Amino acid sequence: MNQTFNLIEEITRNDGSIYYELGNVSENSRAEYAADHGFIKEVRILKMNVPRSSHLIKVEEYLNETYEELPIETDHFDEWVKPEEIQKEMQQVLLDNKLG
Fold first, then answer.
1. CA pair distance 52, 33, nearest whole angstrom
2. b/e for 44-73, b at 16 or more Cβ within 10 A?
3. Which residues, other chains included, contact 4 with Cβ-Cβ below 8 Å and sequence gap of 6+?
4. What is the DSSP letter of 97?
5. Which residues of the chain have pLDDT under 70?
């Protein structure tokens, strides 16, 4: 995968729990499709045009190296699991954008 992420999304799992993820137009479309087909409960864009900080770039590099870009119409929704180091970078992205 080689994507640039410029959105922060709030994703609600089917059990009602919520997590935050980086996204872009393609990934948001994939999440909307997943919500429409019951793979997740809901997705909301919380922030657009997220600044390209060193923290965002580290998360983006990890996601691009670790996960394959799926087609929009798929039969499941993958939650991107991150190791602790990358999760800390993601938390800083949220804080930098007044979401954490």
1. 27
2. eeebeebeeeebbebbbebbeeeeeeeeee
3. 24, 60
4. T
5. 1
Consecutive H or E run containing 94:
helix 84-96
Rg, Å, the chain Cα set: 13
Tokens of 24: 């872009």
Single-letter amino acid, residue 21: E
Predicted confidence at residue 12, as pLDDT, reads 98
Show the tokens assigned to 77.
């929704």
The structure's pTM equals 0.93
Give SS3 for 7: strand
